[in-house]
Amino acid sequence: MKSDAIAFGVAGMLFGLIAGWIIGSQQAKFQPATPQPAVQQSSAAPAAPPKIVDENQVAAFKAIADRETSNPVPRTHLGNLYFDAERYDDAIKWYAEALALSPKDVDISTDLGISYYYTNQPDKALQQFDRSLALNPKHVKTLWNVGVVKAFGKQDLEGAQVAWQQVVQLAPESAEGRQAKVALERLRAAHPPAAGGQQGG
């Protein structure tokens, strides 16, 4: 899964380590999101090479999808391939088709939400995460992503804090739980008025 840096300013301050974090995907092939320090790239830094989708795999999965019209699996794989290639509009198409065939799959639902976020649709991302949480209110990776989108997509620090506190309460020793603890600490340090009224983790 791609590791885009997502950064925004709060009262003229960057969030330090938080500013480089990515959203974690639910697919087994993806690693959970890990905190990364924000890296300032100079104008002379070489651009990252474009991501390339494996057209052979795409063709193979499309053939299966065409043949097996009620099977969500090849559509999910296509979503994954396009997501990894940073072709998020294509990922949305295939995740949406997979979810239509498997509407109770919280992982596909959350992957779809993440793809919405990467296409600058934070509201749709949060709506999709709401659907994921309706399926499983304790889905830790969805809650983690809710916090990230609220913080970086909506500048809703209090909402992000609430989501991350839930992550800590549900799975304090998970990768997401450890990340959420650090995120909450950074929020309190960087923006005390947003975080001072609640304590969590």
Rg is: 17 Å
What is the averaged pLDDT score?
79
Proportion of beta-strand residues? under 5%
Intertermini distance: 28 Å
The general outline is: globular
**Multimer state:** single chain
Poorly predicted regions: 1-43
Count of runs of 4 or more consecutive helical residues? 9
The total count of strands amounts to 0
**Biggest pleated-sheet summary:** none
Output the structural class.
mainly alpha
Task: Give the proportion of residues in helices.
Answer: 55-70%
- Summarize the helix and strand pattern as letters: HHHHHHHHH
Topology:
Layout: H1 55-67, H2 72-84, H3 88-101, H4 106-118, H5 122-135, H6 140-153, H7 157-170, H8 175-190, H9 192-195
Helix pairs in contact: 1-2, 2-3, 3-4, 4-5, 4-6, 5-6, 6-7, 7-8
Q: Could you characterize what this model shows?
A:
The protein has 201 residues and is mainly alpha-helical. It has a domain at 1-38 and 138-201. 57% of the residues lie in helices and 0% in strands. It contains nine helices and no strands. It has helices at residues 55-67, 72-84, 88-101, 106-118, 122-135, 140-153, 157-170, 175-190, 192-195. Helix 2 (72-84) packs antiparallel against helix 3 (88-101) and helix 7 (157-170) runs antiparallel to helix 8 (175-190).
